[in-house]
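PROTOCOL LOG
Step 1. Enter all chains and additional molecules of the complex.
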Amino acid sequence: MENPIGIFDSGVGGLTVLKAIKKLLPMEQLIYLGDTARVPYGNKSKETIVRYSIENTNFLMQFNIKMLVIACNTSTAMGIEILRNMFQIPIIGVIEPGAKRAVEVTKNKRIGVIGTVATIKSKAYQNIIKSYERKAVIFAKPCPLFVPLVEEGLVKGPVAEAVVKMYLEGFKLKNIDTLVLGCTHYPLLKNTIQKFFDRKIQIVDSAEETAKIVKGVLEEKKLANVLKNENDMFFVTDAAERFLKVGKEIMKGALKEVRIAQVGK
Amino acid sequence: MENPIGIFDSGVGGLTVLKAIKKLLPMEQLIYLGDTARVPYGNKSKETIVRYSIENTNFLMQFNIKMLVIACNTSTAMGIEILRNMFQIPIIGVIEPGAKRAVEVTKNKRIGVIGTVATIKSKAYQNIIKSYERKAVIFAKPCPLFVPLVEEGLVKGPVAEAVVKMYLEGFKLKNIDTLVLGCTHYPLLKNTIQKFFDRKIQIVDSAEETAKIVKGVLEEKKLANVLKNENDMFFVTDAAERFLKVGKEIMKGALKEVRIAQVGK
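Step 2. Run joint prediction.
Step 3. Record the structure below.
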């Protein structure tokens, strides 16, 4: 089935998920939407985040997508059930895969979870981790400055280190062995976070795990492409230069043209 | 004339302007709109910022405002001329007052200007300062992390200091004697900035200067209230908790109720 897979995020961070999907499923055509006119989502209300998520999905539905990937933890936490009720295609979020992976890798069952204010407040990670591992002890912390840091490309150096220290210092005393990056922007800060913990913890990001689920569902539902379609398309809702700047950092050569999408009008 | 004055900003920062207006003009009724569903503006494109500014003004026009104050440097830089052509009431921005004040206070005519990416790129401050003082030497620098810092209430401490140092270190070598805070969020970082410069520079923020212009125009056009109207109203486009948190910090007791506005639909 040659229809594309639609992927949206509030901004540039979801490209980490797109990249993982591309690596695992090189035959698929991917259509990406970054809602740069309204980024960030993580400090906004559930009602607003759900409205934005529906508008993004409506935009992608124009391309007859066969599957939707919500490459944004905040949208997944707030909206995945609502979107699943509204749209008749498989919809995959980034929280379940990350939560599952955390339970697989932890040894002492002490898991840290970081994300936006909205994601942490939703308790989506906490509830899913608990459903896989009743005995898990979870420490959750919102890190609202991480998204602007990444969107500005400030992923290392003294400012990134000061912000990482401010948010994560408390985790050092908790004896966690696993940290879930519950936001698709955060993998870009992975090195700085690893350094802060002297590489003594396992860091779980959802990108690769989500790609595995996407592959599994495509195969199960017999939706996978048999002929290669390389016409990936990238849309943003605002001509943010920093999308291209940070996006090229993530995608290397694979991000050339970005088009403007009219969303929610 | 008892109609209210409308004031909008992308978020919470414009309350610094509202507060200065209230202090100088306690008889006036003020209606504030913070576009918290789409904050921040400063990294977005001109087209998007102008659209948001028009939608905000249309919302405030419902209240038959007699004057509009654009309490956002980014909107002023991108949209004030367009808004003046569209709406038949006096419209006052925050850039001209700050630029004028900087020229008044500088002794060595070496002036630093900081603001969002959009404001600095527009060269609005640079052009207006030059129009008042041909010999001014201006050093301009965008500080995109300042808005998220303020919106998170992180206005002092090690993170604020690291960010201030990153952006402003270069100014120390330029021998400026005056620094214009070209964003209504930045006054909340004033102490940290002063400390960084060992209090050796004059800091200009637009709030008080803008209030003076508002007063002058009201008097000139005979629009000032003669009877006190204390029914100030505060609207936001999204129920952001941090608006109340940071807003109360700015407004002390004067911010109680915040309502949700439907803007741009």
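Step 4. Note key features.
Chain B has eleven helices and ten strands.
Strands of chain B lie at 5-9, 30-34, 67-70, 91-92, 110-115, 137-142, 178-182, 202-205, 233-236, 259-260.
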